[in-house]
Amino acid sequence: MNLYEYQAREILRRHGIPVPDGDVATTPDEARAIAQRLGGRVVVKAQVHAGGRGKAGGVKLATNPTEAAAHARQILGMTIKGLPVRKVLVAPAADIASESYVGMIVDRGAQRPVLMVSAAGGVDIEAVAAHTPTQIHRLAVDPRYGLLSHQALGLALTLYRDVAQARAAADIMQRLYTAFYAVGASLAEINPLATTPDGKVMALDAKIVVDDNELERRPEIAALRDPEAEAASEVAAREAGLSFIKLDGTVGCCVNGAGLAMATMDLVKYYGGEPANFLDIGGSSNPQKVVAALRIITADPSVRAILFNIFGGITRCDDVANGIVQATQQLPLKVPMVIRLTGTNEQEAVAILTRAGYTALTDMDDAVKQAVARARGKAA
Amino acid sequence: MSIFVDQETRLLVQGITGRDGSFHTRQMISYGTKVVAGVTPGKGGQLFDGVVPVFDTVADAVRETKPTCSVIYVPAAVAASAILEAADAGLPLVVCITEGIPVLDMTRALPFLHEHGARLIGPNCPGLISPTKGKVGIIPGNICKPGRIGVVSRSGTLTYEIIHQLTRAGHGQSTCVGIGGDPLIGTNFIQCLSAFEADPDTDAVVLIGEIGGTDEQQAAEFAQRGMTKPVIGFIAGQTAPPGRRMGHAGAIISGSSGTAAEKMAAFERAGISVMKRPADVVPLLEERL
Questions:
Q1: Which residues of B are catalytic?
Q2: Domain range holding B266?
Q3: Which residues from B are below 8 Å from A245, CB to CB?
Q4: ipTM score of the complex?
Q5: Are B259 and B212 found together in one domain?
Q6: CA of A121: how far to CAs of A193, A248, A358, B252, in Å?
Q7: Tell me: the pLDDT tens digits for A166-220?
Q8: Of A205, A251, A320, B205, which has fewest CB within 10 angstroms of its CB?
Q9: Catalytic: which of A101, A160, A177, A346?
Q10: With an 8 Å Cβ cutoff, is A107 touching chain B?
Q11: Do the chains contact at A266 and B237, CB–CB below 8 Å?
């Protein structure tokens, strides 16, 4: 789950990392009041789960509260990478002497959390990574001992010549490491970690992504979720326990298992079609999940044919068949449906579907070919 | 022979009285696996289905029944703890089926396993099966058939699909291993390839990968350098949207190396036959045998 900048800043602040003052506004009047309280120049920043906000015009400087309100009005109406902006952060416009990057992620290869720092922070850090990777210093942390003081200082000294600043940055890194485990993050970034002309080191912008598997045991983090930031279909899928990603094609896919779901999408493409979605109904046998899945797929007006691909293991084919029959009774289909089922209780499933007037295939390639043909409006 | 699991395997089931644990314990027993004990805290002293003794702790079960392998079906919130308990009690092989374990739990569990000399398979995996010899996990026994092909995969049902295609064409399997779909797993492709290479009863290996990470590229390098047996490879997610990037750090760590195209190219460079779709497995395998 992505956190907004203002939420990430608050987590860092609670862990003792210096962040500038500031507050979040949902209306121009609120933005004006915050700017009034802060005094001086402020920056108005779109709060949205997308990178490149500045380049999209979602970050603006204001010299007085009236200007802050005007910027807020403009930014609050914007859409950045398809996401509407509903909140802005209003913070003092800090004078910046230098910008560094500090990031932490779990590295699959090292099987450890890895801290990455670069003196070349700011908006173009990815270009730095791609073109001059030697400017990025990495350290895999042993989670049995945590980030040790001398390790943090060693990294910080690659960022700052001034020892006082390096010590301040090292302290921030150790606090970031603690925060990472405390919130169950899979990514935490401070970019930029800035120095001010008077030599202070502080986190000017922050990004935190929380591992979805952590949310059940961290209700205070789960409560930070903004359902408005997600497509309605993705919220509905999550609530039904389905994994769903909307795509641009015409063949609606409903599959059990993520690997098989991806392979099914690949096969749709192989036979000349385009998948309308990724949808994994998971390993359970609950017919209600199938009902929810069909509801989500049929709500997409670009879907021209629906393809079920079920390989029964834990999932029982007869449960899926029952779900299909129930769902089509509740919401009659306007597009053709191709069903492939094989594995556990396959024969029971075929009998259920046959009684309801559907045919079930057992071969994956046959089913995908038919679904692609149907989506083009051809008879199978 | 086979790898990791055979007719000598003495299995302990952690979470034997739970919904999934009890269902799959019955499946494993009916497949012929020797299930010697189960663990559910608070149910020690009971008999599961009147046959399998249940213990409160793994240590008790180990002392009384000498298992050689443990399989875990407990909920995600306590699964990392179950893994640690199994390693602590001295089990050399631990298979964790549970999905949804927080990645940070695994960052702490993996060094502990290492210190205790235990091999973990999974988590978030279907387990493994050596057809007719033994099954540990949830791979349906009826789609497998004994033979000389090794299968190793990051996925669940996609693995079944490919095993099904092999079996239908008459190619039986020595062992099928699902190593798990999580970012941090106990046993990787290379360790499985190396075990298959050493197994005199495996002639060729089918490797099923996915987008994300660079495990497949490392496996390809290993296959080129350290294997004499043919390898057939598949990557799921050729059409997956690049989407959902994990901020800058994700791009810095993996660059474009996590894509299906990168992985398939690495396979080709290493002399691995690349399937474009699951149904290619049989013709490509027959070409190489």
A1: 248
A2: 127-288
A3: 241, 243-244
A4: 0.92
A5: yes
A6: 7, 35, 59, 13
A7: 999 999 999 999 999 999 999 999 999 999 999 999 999 999 999 999 999 999 9
A8: A205
A9: A101
A10: yes
A11: yes
